[in-house]
Design goal:
Helix content of chain A: 10-25%
Largest interface: A-B, 52 and 34 residues
Largest sheet of chain B: 2 strands, antiparallel
Radius of gyration of chain B: 29 Å
Number of strands of chain A: 11
Distance between the termini of chain B: 52 Å
Number of helices of chain B: 4
CATH architecture of the largest domain in chain A: Roll
Order of helices and strands of chain B: HEEHHH
CATH topology of the largest domain in chain A: SH3 type barrels
Oligomer: heterodimer
Shape of chain B: elongated
Distance between the termini of chain A: 59 Å
Strand content of chain A: 25-35%
Chain lengths: 263, 124
Amino acid sequence: MGVLDDPALYYAPPQDDWAQGDIVVVPTVVLRARGERTAAVYPQPAPPPDGSSSVVYDLWAGDGPLPASAAECWLGPAVVVSDDCAIDKEFNARVDELLAAGCAEAEAIEVARQDESLDRTLLVAPVLPYGQLRFTREDAVRTAQAVGYFPVVDGPEMDEGYVDLGRIVPVSRHLLFGPVACLSEGARSILRWKVAQYCAARNLSVDAQIAAAVGRTITRMQAVEDSKRRLVVDLELDGGAARLRLRQEPRKEEAPPARGRGR
Amino acid sequence: MRTFTTLARERGVTTIPVDLRQTADVQPEAELTWVEISPCFWLVGPARCHPEEVAPLVAGALLSGRSAFPKLMSRLLSGEVPQRVGRGHKRQRRLPPQASPMTEEQMVTLGATSPSVRHRRGRE
C-alpha cells in the first residue's frame, strides 16, 4: 500500500491556512467562444456544488473582428495547486518591506495579515468523477502515471475522482469553501510533480524512466543505428522485467563561425 | 407516485391536472408557490402548504442521491464541512530556502523539449 492506495497516507489534517493540496468547493470556469454552449438568461440559480452541471453566459455584445466569448462556470470540488510559497508571495514581500522600514516582526505580520490586497487569487483545478475521463486509462490516472491528471483517493471525507490539470484557473481566496479534505505531504509531492510535468516539463518523463531504472540490473544490451543515423541502445533490465531505450542524436558538424558582434 | 403531463402554452400558461386539483382542493384564484430547485426542476403546490419550506429537503435529497460525490454532498448539506476564513488571518511568514540563480545554459538544458509531437490540429 502506498500514498495513492491508502487514504490514511493520502490525507492529512488541515494546515492553519490555505495550502497546496487543500480540497475546497469553489467556482471554476472555462472561457468559450460564443455558441459552443447554449447561453442561459442571467441570472440562474447556483449550480449544484458537486460540479455536475454548469451555467453558461455570453460575456459581452459586439461583432468586431475578435471572437465573441462566453463563460461556462461550475461550482464543485477543486484542489489548490498553487505552491505554498506562491500562495503567500505578496504577503511575505510585504512583511519584508515592513521589517526593512523598522517594524518588529510580529507587528509586520499582523499588518500584512490585515491587508486583503495581498495574494488575492490562487490557482485551483477541479476534481471530476472518473466517468468524465476521456482518451486516458482510468488505471493510469489512479496510479498518477497519466500526464495532466492527479488522482483523488476515496477517503472518509471525500469521494474518489481525478484532478483535471487542464482546467487550472485563478480564483479569489474569498470564494474558497472548506477545506473539505487536505492532502498529506507525500500526496502533495506527487501533486507538485504532476503539475510541473503537465505545465512545463512533459519530457522530464524520460528522466523519470531513467530514474526508475536505477537499482535494476542490465541483463542484455543491443546497440543499433536507426534510419535517422541515431545510435539506439536497448537495455533489458532484470531479465526482461523492464526495458529502457536510449537514443543518441548524430553528432552535428560544426558550422563555420559567423561574425560576432562582440561584447 | 402519480405523474401527470401538461402542456406549456404561450407565456408559460399551463393547467393543473384535474386529479391533483381535486385532491389538493385547489379552487379558482388560489395562489400557487413555485420553488426553483434547479434550472429545470421546480417544486409547486398551493401557497397555503408552503412548498418553499420543504424545498431544501427535496433539493438536498436530489443532489446527494444523484451526485458522483455523495460523501461531499452529504457533508455539505449537513453543514459538516468546516469553513476556514479565507482572508489570511492565520498566515505565517514563510522563509523558503533561497535558490542560487541559474545560468541561462542551465535553464535551456532544463527546459529543452524533444520534438515528439506527432500531429498538430491546426487553427481551422
